Amino acid sequence: MNDPLSINDPRAHEARTRRLNDALRRFHVGGRVLLSLGITCLSDNAIASILNAVRTYDGFSAENDSDNLHDFGIIEVGEHTVMFKIDVASAPRSAGISPLSPYAPSPPFIPD
């Protein structure tokens, strides 16, 4: 996937973005996890449940993820409706290289 020719391939770009988004969502690697004030005011158990629900979310479909980037979801966790957003494009850059660049290091292995 680090093939320089993939820079102009929209499907390769989409696949790389999706892998980076999944790595952050599922394993908290490749970026930062930020919580809203409303979430941080909940109990430790509620926060852990929410983080686990986001981490294990697999409800992406053509209806709710039309770009196929796995970057947004709405989930019910107990009595809470939670929205999550992943924005790889604004992730911190290492040595000035965008994480979306085909020259950027590959994300860690992500099991299916």
From TrEMBL:
<feature type="compositionally biased region" description="Pro residues">
    <location>
        <begin position="102"/>
        <end position="112"/>
    </location>
</feature>
<dbReference type="InterPro" id="IPR022243">
    <property type="entry name" value="DUF3768"/>
</dbReference>
<dbReference type="Pfam" id="PF12599">
    <property type="entry name" value="DUF3768"/>
</dbReference>
<feature type="region of interest" description="Disordered">
    <location>
        <begin position="93"/>
        <end position="112"/>
    </location>
</feature>
<protein>
    <submittedName>
        <fullName>Uncharacterized protein DUF3768</fullName>
    </submittedName>
</protein>
